[in-house]
Inverse folding.
């Protein structure tokens, strides 16, 4: 398969692993930002090809995982309303709220639909004028443009039965928050290539300057990831901290400018609570005033929800790279993909799920 | 708790759910929990403990295989088949997995009010064509009509009886250390064909379901003297779930070579786009074949000559001991363990 096979080529991977081992003369700790990268690393065993001097810690880049409990509970409460067709990406269906999950609500009669694109939810709203169609808009800058497109369509069609429960999050403010924590261990960052395909990497320049930490734009295939690691190690060994693009086949400095303009038109930056990171100023996307009539949180009364999280779940520490999933006392015991205590065990990008799926029992 | 004593028949909780969710039918861990914690205890008997696709019954000195399967596929018509073909092939395959020669089938139809008769005619013609090609007849059946909205057009349940007229015991407990593990072709076609036929995905592909009756192929392998230890068709949950179940039931570990597992370019591409792992995607005409190492080449040579064995390959072996784990050696020389998915594979966000 073109564009896949050459980036999973065993000889290229081995050669890169050797170059990394030769380049790393000291101990370095890198964080891969995106949960998709975490899964690729654990699935392909890339961490086992790296020299012991390198430590990879797993970042917060899992949109399902960082969505705070009260927003999940809000979603579940909307999905239970009889007039609502609740549309969600598949990943969200099994994420536990305080009391239930979307899959259970569906089993008990809630109209929960899995969609691939927010635009499908707009189509559903047109087809079901007597129902309220709500799309659960989660994700980073990767999924936000599609939500923006859906909002723009809904406005053009003047739909009054379509709304969005928005919990979109942005990467750069989260990185700044992580790098600002007093116990930060990260010396270099592998940025998420798909986010950069949309946003470019110009946003990272101020971050490398303030924190003196190299940021390498990195893809998702084994060869891409090791190229990112190598570039990051080389930066660190040279004592440099710049933004390096190791995913040039997909990413330019400017990114996808029309998508960025779409985001600007539909959204505005808002303060947002992240699971594990707390409230980060201007780290989320809220609907701009001209689109606010599509805000499900305003359209439906959800006040009075009381959220609670498992006392055993330490997903906050996992999401900030402070805890290896396997060090969590509940890992594989109270918490499994069948009985998840937190989103990091359910999501296809969650770090706990990656270790359970590919390493549990080894 | 004292209250529980009042309800001795209730073995709940099954995992965290007190009711069925779709994942309980997905061929993964949730389904295993439902089977192990509720269904098996409720129906407990030694034949169920054979843990195979069909039960092998001793009857007046002959061995019969008996199986039943319900078909609820959506859409009813998909590239490479329809629910009728599936209902015949699936049950014939479940018989074949015990090494049985199929004798008779039954079919029960649950028809939703409003379902067009021309579609029903097409489905039954497909079903009967597969049965006739296998040399069997649908000798009994049942028909029910349910209210509009209470069924997805048409559900079919078929049962089958087959005769085991050889001395082999083809079952999970017959798997032995050192057995070669073969598959009869590339995996994942059926699941991807079904997904592509669901309008909501807006996803087009030329992939056809691999839906096929494997009973004649199995018969030829046995006739050629292949000492088959076990067979398992790779339906819901795909190759991964099938091997994990067998490893558990045999109490042995297995090792697979990732590069040896045949996956077509089209299925790989579709799975990449949809975020699915082909290892866990359903097949309807593929099986894993466990044979002693000494018989592996004979079996592969026969598969190569058979239309349903095109693309067959040796994908791994059974280890000398273990506790039911399946290891996958990646092309980078790193081994990872396969894990049963929880329920259905859910497409990812980004």
């Amino acid at each position: 398969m073109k564009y896949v096979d050459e980036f999973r080529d065993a000889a290229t991977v081995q050669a890169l692993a050797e170059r990394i081992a030769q380049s790393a003369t000291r101990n370095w700790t890198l964080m891969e930002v995106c949960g998709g990268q975490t899964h690729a690393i654990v699935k392909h065993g890339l961490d086992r090809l790296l020299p012991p001097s390198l430590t990879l810690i797993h970042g917060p880049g899992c949109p399902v995982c960082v969505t705070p409990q009260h927003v999940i509970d809000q979603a579940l409460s909307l999905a239970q309303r009889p007039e609502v067709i609740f549309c969600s990406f598949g990943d969200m269906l099994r994420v536990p709220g305080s009391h239930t999950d979307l899959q259970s609500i569906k089993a008990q009669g809630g109209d929960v639909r899995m969609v691939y694109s927010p635009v499908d939810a707009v189509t559903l709203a047109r087809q079901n004028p007597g129902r309220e169609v709500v799309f659960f808009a989660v994700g980073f800058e990767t999924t936000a443009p599609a939500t923006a497109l859906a909002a723009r369509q809904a406005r053009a069609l003047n739909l009054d039965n379509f709304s969005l429960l928005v919990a979109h999050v942005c990467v750069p403010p989260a990185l700044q928050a992580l790098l600002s924590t007093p116990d930060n261990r990260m010396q270099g960052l592998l940025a998420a290539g798909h986010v950069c395909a949309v946003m470019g990497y110009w946003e990272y320049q101020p971050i490398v300057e303030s924190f003196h930490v190299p940021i390498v734009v990195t893809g998702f295939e084994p060869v891409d990831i090791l190229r990112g690691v190598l570039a990051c190690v080389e930066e660190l060994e040279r004592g440099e901290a710049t933004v390096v693009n190791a995913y040039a086949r997909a990413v330019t400095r400017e990114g996808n400018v029309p998508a960025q303009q779409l985001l600007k038109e539909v959204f505005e930056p808002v303060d947002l609570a992240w699971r594990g990171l707390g409230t980060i100023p201007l780290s989320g996307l809220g609907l701009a005033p001209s689109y606010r009539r599509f805000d499900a949180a305003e359209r439906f009364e959800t006040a009075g929800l009381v959220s609670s999280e498992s006392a055993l779940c330490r997903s906050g520490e996992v999401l900030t790279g402070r805890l290896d999933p396997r060090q969590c006392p509940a890992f594989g015991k109270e918490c499994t993909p069948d009985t998840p205590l937190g989103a990091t065990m359910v999501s296809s990008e969650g770090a706990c799920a990656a270790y359970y799926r590919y390493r549990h029992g080894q | 708790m004292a209250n529980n004593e009042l309800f001795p028949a209730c073995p709940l909780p099954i995992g965290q759910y007190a009711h069925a969710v779709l994942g309980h039918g997905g061929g993964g861990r949730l389904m295993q929990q439902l089977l192990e914690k509720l269904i098996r205890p409720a129906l407990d008997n030694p034949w169920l403990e054979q843990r195979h696709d069909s039960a092998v019954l001793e009857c007046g000195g002959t061995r019969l295989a008996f199986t039943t399967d319900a078909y609820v596929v959506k859409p009813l018509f998909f590239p490479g088949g329809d629910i009728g073909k599936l209902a015949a092939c699936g049950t014939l395959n479940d018989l074949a997995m015990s090494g049985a020669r199929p004798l008779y089938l039954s079919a029960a139809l649950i028809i939703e009010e409003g379902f067009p008769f021309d579609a029903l005619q097409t489905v039954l013609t497909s079903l009967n064509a597969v049965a006739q090609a296998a040399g069997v007849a649908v000798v009994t059946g049942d028909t029910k009509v349910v209210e509009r909205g209470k069924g997805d057009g048409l559900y079919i349940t078929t049962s089958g009886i087959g005769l085991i007229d050889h001395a082999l015991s083809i079952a999970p407990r017959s798997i032995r250390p050192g057995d070669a593990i073969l598959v009869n072709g590339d995996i994942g076609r059926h699941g991807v064909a079904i997904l592509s036929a669901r309008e909501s995905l807006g996803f087009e592909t030329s992939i056809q379901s691999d839906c096929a009756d494997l009973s004649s192929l199995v018969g030829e392998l046995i006739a050629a003297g292949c000492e088959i230890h076990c067979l398992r068709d790779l339906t819901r949950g795909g190759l991964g779930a099938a091997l994990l179940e067998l490893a558990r039931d045999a109490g042995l570990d297995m090792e697979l070579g990732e590069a040896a597992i045949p996956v077509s370019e089209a299925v790989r591409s579709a799975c990449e786009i949809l975020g699915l792992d082909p290892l866990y995607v359903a097949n309807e005409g593929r099986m894993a074949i466990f044979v002693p190492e000494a018989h592996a080449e004979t079996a592969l040579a026969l598969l190569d000559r058979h239309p349903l064995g095109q693309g067959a390959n040796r994908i791994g072996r059974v280890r000398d001991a273990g506790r039911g784990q399946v290891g996958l050696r990646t092309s980078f020389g790193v081994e990872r363990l396969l894990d049963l998915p929880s329920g259905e594979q859910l497409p990812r966000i980004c």
Q: What stands out?
A: The two ends of chain B are 45 Å apart (CA to CA). Residues 117-133 of chain B form the longest helix (17 residues). Chain B has two domains: 54-165, 172-337. The domain at 172-337 of chain B is CATH 3.90.650.10 (Phosphoribosyl-aminoimidazole Synthetase; Chain A, domain 2).
